[in-house]
Amino acid sequence: MKRMIFVLICFVALLVPVTVLAGGGEGGFNGIVRTIEVKYHSHATRIPFMGLISFVARKATQGGVSNVHVAEFEDFSASMDGQELNRMVEQKLGPEWERVIRETSRNGESQTLIFMHAEGQRMGLFVLDSSGHELDVVQVSVDPDHLNGKLDEYRHHAHHNEGD
Asked: Domain count of the chain?
Protein backbone atom coordinates (compact mmCIF):
# COMPACT_ATOMS: atom_id res chain seq x y z
CA MET A 1 0.00 0.00 0.00
CA LYS A 2 2.81 2.41 0.91
CA ARG A 3 4.52 1.63 -2.39
CA MET A 4 1.35 2.44 -4.36
CA ILE A 5 1.03 5.80 -2.59
CA PHE A 6 4.71 6.52 -3.29
CA VAL A 7 4.24 5.72 -7.00
CA LEU A 8 1.15 7.96 -7.16
CA ILE A 9 3.01 10.85 -5.48
CA CYS A 10 5.94 10.45 -7.90
CA PHE A 11 3.60 10.44 -10.88
CA VAL A 12 1.86 13.63 -9.73
CA ALA A 13 5.23 15.24 -8.99
CA LEU A 14 6.31 14.51 -12.56
CA LEU A 15 3.12 15.91 -14.08
CA VAL A 16 3.39 19.28 -12.35
CA PRO A 17 6.66 20.37 -14.09
CA VAL A 18 5.42 19.00 -17.40
CA THR A 19 2.23 21.03 -17.10
CA VAL A 20 4.16 24.18 -16.20
CA LEU A 21 6.63 23.71 -19.06
CA ALA A 22 3.78 23.08 -21.48
CA GLY A 23 2.72 26.66 -20.87
CA GLY A 24 -0.47 26.31 -18.89
CA GLY A 25 -2.71 29.31 -19.31
CA GLU A 26 -2.79 31.30 -22.50
CA GLY A 27 0.86 31.05 -23.52
CA GLY A 28 3.15 28.26 -24.64
CA PHE A 29 2.10 24.99 -26.20
CA ASN A 30 -1.41 24.89 -24.71
CA GLY A 31 -2.06 28.52 -25.61
CA ILE A 32 -1.12 27.90 -29.24
CA VAL A 33 -3.26 24.77 -29.50
CA ARG A 34 -6.26 26.53 -27.90
CA THR A 35 -5.87 29.55 -30.17
CA ILE A 36 -5.81 27.32 -33.27
CA GLU A 37 -8.88 25.44 -32.02
CA VAL A 38 -10.85 28.66 -31.49
CA LYS A 39 -9.66 30.59 -34.55
CA TYR A 40 -10.03 27.77 -37.05
CA HIS A 41 -13.02 25.98 -35.44
CA SER A 42 -11.12 22.71 -35.24
CA HIS A 43 -10.44 20.27 -32.41
CA ALA A 44 -6.99 18.93 -31.55
CA THR A 45 -6.45 15.31 -30.71
CA ARG A 46 -4.14 15.01 -27.75
CA ILE A 47 -2.37 11.80 -26.95
CA PRO A 48 -3.57 10.32 -23.64
CA PHE A 49 -0.96 9.77 -20.90
CA MET A 50 1.53 12.11 -22.61
CA GLY A 51 3.21 12.79 -19.25
CA LEU A 52 3.90 9.08 -18.86
CA ILE A 53 5.09 8.81 -22.47
CA SER A 54 7.40 11.77 -21.91
CA PHE A 55 8.81 10.10 -18.80
CA VAL A 56 9.43 6.88 -20.73
CA ALA A 57 11.06 8.84 -23.58
CA ARG A 58 13.43 10.51 -21.12
CA LYS A 59 14.41 7.13 -19.65
CA ALA A 60 14.70 5.41 -23.04
CA THR A 61 16.98 8.15 -24.41
CA GLN A 62 18.98 8.45 -21.17
CA GLY A 63 17.78 12.06 -20.79
CA GLY A 64 18.20 13.00 -24.45
CA VAL A 65 14.50 13.78 -24.98
CA SER A 66 11.94 14.92 -22.43
CA ASN A 67 8.88 17.11 -21.89
CA VAL A 68 7.17 15.86 -25.04
CA HIS A 69 3.86 17.51 -26.02
CA VAL A 70 1.90 16.58 -29.14
CA ALA A 71 -1.39 17.79 -30.61
CA GLU A 72 -2.79 16.73 -33.97
CA PHE A 73 -5.55 18.37 -35.97
CA GLU A 74 -7.03 15.93 -38.49
CA ASP A 75 -9.25 17.05 -41.36
CA PHE A 76 -7.88 20.57 -40.97
CA SER A 77 -9.26 22.34 -44.03
CA ALA A 78 -9.02 26.00 -42.99
CA SER A 79 -6.68 28.21 -44.96
CA MET A 80 -4.05 29.90 -42.81
CA ASP A 81 -2.22 33.12 -43.47
CA GLY A 82 1.48 32.32 -42.91
CA GLN A 83 2.36 35.72 -41.48
CA GLU A 84 -0.60 35.71 -39.12
CA LEU A 85 0.20 32.16 -37.97
CA ASN A 86 3.84 33.10 -37.37
CA ARG A 87 2.87 36.19 -35.34
CA MET A 88 0.45 34.17 -33.21
CA VAL A 89 3.05 31.49 -32.45
CA GLU A 90 5.71 34.10 -31.66
CA GLN A 91 3.31 35.91 -29.32
CA LYS A 92 2.20 32.75 -27.51
CA LEU A 93 5.71 31.28 -27.14
CA GLY A 94 7.23 34.55 -25.96
CA PRO A 95 10.43 36.46 -26.76
CA GLU A 96 12.80 33.80 -25.40
CA TRP A 97 11.93 31.56 -28.37
CA GLU A 98 13.69 32.16 -31.69
CA ARG A 99 12.25 31.10 -35.00
CA VAL A 100 14.81 29.11 -36.99
CA ILE A 101 12.65 27.87 -39.87
CA ARG A 102 9.58 29.27 -41.58
CA GLU A 103 8.57 27.52 -44.75
CA THR A 104 5.37 28.14 -46.66
CA SER A 105 4.50 26.45 -49.93
CA ARG A 106 3.80 28.69 -52.89
CA ASN A 107 0.05 28.07 -52.68
CA GLY A 108 0.05 28.28 -48.86
CA GLU A 109 -1.36 24.76 -48.39
CA SER A 110 1.63 23.59 -46.36
CA GLN A 111 3.48 25.50 -43.69
CA THR A 112 6.23 24.66 -41.23
CA LEU A 113 7.43 26.71 -38.29
CA ILE A 114 10.30 25.63 -36.04
CA PHE A 115 11.30 27.60 -32.94
CA MET A 116 14.11 26.98 -30.44
CA HIS A 117 15.21 28.34 -27.09
CA ALA A 118 17.88 27.58 -24.54
CA GLU A 119 16.88 25.71 -21.38
CA GLY A 120 20.20 25.73 -19.55
CA GLN A 121 22.13 22.74 -20.90
CA ARG A 122 19.06 21.67 -22.87
CA MET A 123 17.23 23.07 -25.86
CA GLY A 124 13.52 23.52 -26.31
CA LEU A 125 12.07 22.84 -29.75
CA PHE A 126 8.62 23.81 -30.98
CA VAL A 127 7.39 22.56 -34.36
CA LEU A 128 4.15 23.41 -36.14
CA ASP A 129 3.65 21.58 -39.43
CA SER A 130 0.62 21.90 -41.68
CA SER A 131 0.39 19.72 -44.76
CA GLY A 132 -2.70 18.88 -46.74
CA HIS A 133 -5.52 18.44 -44.25
CA GLU A 134 -3.37 17.72 -41.21
CA LEU A 135 -1.80 20.11 -38.71
CA ASP A 136 0.67 18.83 -36.11
CA VAL A 137 2.03 20.76 -33.13
CA VAL A 138 4.96 19.35 -31.15
CA GLN A 139 7.07 20.70 -28.30
CA VAL A 140 10.02 18.83 -26.84
CA SER A 141 13.11 19.43 -24.74
CA VAL A 142 16.37 17.86 -25.95
CA ASP A 143 19.92 17.51 -24.70
CA PRO A 144 21.94 18.51 -27.79
CA ASP A 145 25.21 17.05 -26.50
CA HIS A 146 23.59 13.69 -25.77
CA LEU A 147 21.91 13.58 -29.18
CA ASN A 148 25.13 14.57 -30.98
CA GLY A 149 26.90 11.73 -29.19
CA LYS A 150 24.23 9.28 -30.33
CA LEU A 151 24.43 10.58 -33.91
CA ASP A 152 28.22 10.17 -33.83
CA GLU A 153 27.78 6.55 -32.71
CA TYR A 154 25.57 5.86 -35.72
CA ARG A 155 27.94 7.68 -38.09
CA HIS A 156 30.88 5.70 -36.77
CA HIS A 157 28.92 2.46 -37.01
CA ALA A 158 27.84 3.26 -40.60
CA HIS A 159 31.42 4.02 -41.70
CA HIS A 160 32.65 0.85 -40.04
CA ASN A 161 30.06 -1.25 -41.87
CA GLU A 162 30.87 0.34 -45.26
CA GLY A 163 34.26 -1.36 -45.18
CA ASP A 164 32.70 -4.80 -44.69
From this structure: 1
